[in-house]
Amino acid sequence: MGGYGDGGPDPAVNAALAQAVAQCRASNVPKASIMAAISAAKPQCSERRLLAVRGPGGSRIVVVYDGREGALLSCVKRLLHREGASLSEVPRGAFEERGWIRTAPHSAAGCPIGQEGALSAAIAAGAEDVNLDGKPGDGDGEEALEFLCPPSELSAVGQRLQQEGLRLLASGVRLVPHRRVALQAEERRRAERLLKELRRCPGVSDVVHNIEGPEVGEGEPEVGG
Question: How far out from the chain centre does Cα 189 lie?
């Protein structure tokens, strides 16, 4: 499965890129120049692969990485042994792909959007849901908005959000769990340590899980060269 992270160089699944392409076309940038810029970006986008883990308390964890398995497996196996976890297959039906589009908390005109405005924009754009994503969307420190939709609708929803006056920051596809599991206190502590360390393994772009409750092990991944 591809297209995780920032959406990659395909405008069909990268709403922010689709927005930039549309702006270039509106500015009469030659089509050949646009296609050349997109093609130049493709070699820099590594293939995304998945590594499944059975975590503490029967939890399920999926590591999304860039295809370079050597250093990653060495790091992961060491962590799994320490926390009593193990490699596994991705359970059928345990996760699904969801498209996401991150926008600034202010409109392109600089007006605050607010919760009511975000919900109205989501309905108008055909998004399934909208949340605060916990990360600053502008220099003022306010949280950005995250709109969710089917992966096949990313480009269309992004275009409609732009028409509603929102400024797109990034987009892509991620895995989300169908159902979450509750862990006991000690299991949760082990899971927190494991998730935090997995995000630091070389080549890791994302780590998703099905653990219930407040987000655990959050932090920016340290991507190895």
Answer: 24
pLDDT in tens, the chain (225 residues): 333 345 555 555 555 566 566 656 555 556 666 566 555 544 444 567 889 999 999 999 999 888 677 778 889 999 998 888 999 987 788 899 999 999 998 887 888 888 889 999 999 999 999 987 666 555 555 688 999 999 999 989 998 998 999 988 888 888 889 889 999 999 999 999 999 999 999 889 889 999 987 665 554 433 333
* Token pair 């969801």: residue: 98
Q: Are 95 and 178 in contact (CB under 8 A)?
A: yes
3-state secondary structure of 77: helix
Q: Is residue 198 within 8 Å of 63, Cβ to Cβ? A: yes
Helices 154-163 + 114-125 axis angle, to 10: 130
3-state secondary structure of 44: helix
**65/21 Cα distance (integer angstroms):** 27
CA distance 184 to 79: 20
CA 205, distance to chain mean position in Å, is 9
Contacts of 38 (CB under 8 A, 6+ apart): 9, 11, 17, 21
Q: At 62, list the tokens.
A: 């999926």
What's the pTM?
0.65
CB 148 within 8 Å of CB 5: no
